[in-house]
Amino acid sequence: MTNSVAILGSTGSIGTQAIEVAQKHGIRVTALAANTKVDALVQQARELRPELLCIADESRYPALKEAAAGLGCRLLAGMDGLCEIAQHESTGTLLNSVVGMVGLLPTLTAIGANKPIALANKETLVAGGALVMQAAADRGLPIYPIDSEHSAIFQCLQGNKRSQLKKIILTASGGPFFGKTKADLQNTTVEQALNHPNWSMGNKITIDSATLMNKGLEFIEARWLFDLEPDQIEIVVHRQSVLHSAVVYQDESMIGQMGVPDMKIPIQYALLYPERLPCPTKPLSLTDYGTLTFAKPDYETFDCLTACIEASRTGGSAPAIANGANEAAVAAFLARKIPFLRIGELVKATLREIPSAPLTCYDDVVAADQAARDFVAAQIAS
Ligand code: MG
How far is the CA of 86 from the centre of ligand 1 (A)? Predict the structure, then answer.
């Protein structure tokens, strides 16, 4: 297990739970970074006294300077600050839980500095999976997944031969609109889309869960993390979010990981690996649930899911394009500039319009991402 952790995205849902886990197990928190929330960040710093404190939104740096005066932390800002934390000598494990493609460069920087990664930033692998996995493999560095599904798969792979894995079952809650048709979803409001049945999360991932983009991103993420072909991933809708995912071996044994829907379990496994110590969460009572259900996903209604699977098959920059288009479209939906169903239409249209190109370096990923965002912006403006 790790002795110290630097947390990017410390004021978000994963970040705050990671702090709780770290405190429970005496893991030192050496750096904290937030996007915009200066007050919450400084509150955390007052308690944890990290060496480094970073606000990603540079315009808030003066506010951070004022609020953090006297705390004795070195103050940083922007992407440079995130990357400085990623490679700093005090960083044991880098826990990356920022939202969006912006997490890619800090992840690559940390790998370059030989830091193990606890990864909750799925867009990192979706957009730049080839680069990240190659860089980590070159240095023999582990990437511990914090996404609940990927943590489940990672756990189910322990103690078995990877070469004897047949496929994985990626479970999906189905989101708040399970069972709905496109006609039902015409007038979906931001508030309805933000009302997730099982998980309490940030706005971006909650919208991604409502469109099933989140499951599409996780499909791509799983391919990279576990080196799978698309045909080796089966998505199954499981409404209760108790079976977090499963793997199937060649002998047709299916091994799954179950638990209450609480991110502290995957966060703790990533930070304490391979230890399994008491976790600040509720025990799972199967008899309280009584029934667990499983169904096929609705690929007709949820365009984003289909688009991601297609992008994954296409390869190259297609996943980065899908991700960039989605990030721009979700921001526009949350700003009430486009209707809900337009998110999926825009992701599909962007993939049709921008051809996939090979990804050989970070700049290729950034270019694909930017082209997708520009296309979506132009579509919304026209
Ligand atoms: Mg997940």
Answer: 24
Q: Is 106 exposed, middle or buried (0-12, 13-18, 19+ CB in 10 A)?
A: buried
Neighbours of ion ligand 1 (CB under 5 A): 147-149
Closest to 356 in 3D by CA, of 305, 314, 303: 314
Q: Are 7 and 32 in contact (CB under 8 A)?
A: yes
Q: pTM, whole model, 2 decimals? A: 0.94
Write out the two tokens for 145: 């997944």
Q: With a cut of 70, which residues of the chain have pLDDT below it?
A: none
CB atoms within 10 A of CB 178: 18
> Residue 200 has what pLDDT?
75
Q: How far apart are alpha carbons 350 and 354 in whole angstroms?
A: 6
Centre of ligand 1 from the C-alpha of residue 341, in Å? 22
- Amino acid 65: pLDDT: 98
- Residue 73 confidence (pLDDT): 97
CA of 212 to the centre of ligand 1 (A): 11
Strands 254-258 and 243-249: antiparallel
What's the CA-to-centroid distance between 346 and ligand 1, angstroms?
Answer: 23
- Tell me how far the alpha carbon of residue 256 lies from the centroid of ligand 1, in angstroms: 15
In this prediction, residue 201 carries a pLDDT of 79
pLDDT at residue 168, rounded to an integer: 98
Q: What is the 149 CA–ligand 1 centroid distance (Å)?
A: 5
Query: 338: CA distance to ligand 1 center in Å?
Result: 25
The pLDDT value given to residue 202: 85
| Per-residue pLDDT, 309 | 97
Residue spans of the domains in the chain: they are 4-141, 147-174+212-297
Cα 295 to ligand 1 centre (Å): 17
- The CATH topology of domain 4-141 is Rossmann fold (3.40.50)
- The per-residue pLDDT for 264 is 98
Q: What is the Å distance from ligand 1's center to 62 Cα?
A: 35
Phi first, then psi: give them for residue 31, nearest 5 degrees: -155, 145
* Residue tagged 């998980």 (tokens): 199
Q: How far apart are CA 15 and CA 199, in angstroms?
A: 15
C-alpha span between 71 and 56 (Å, rounded): 19
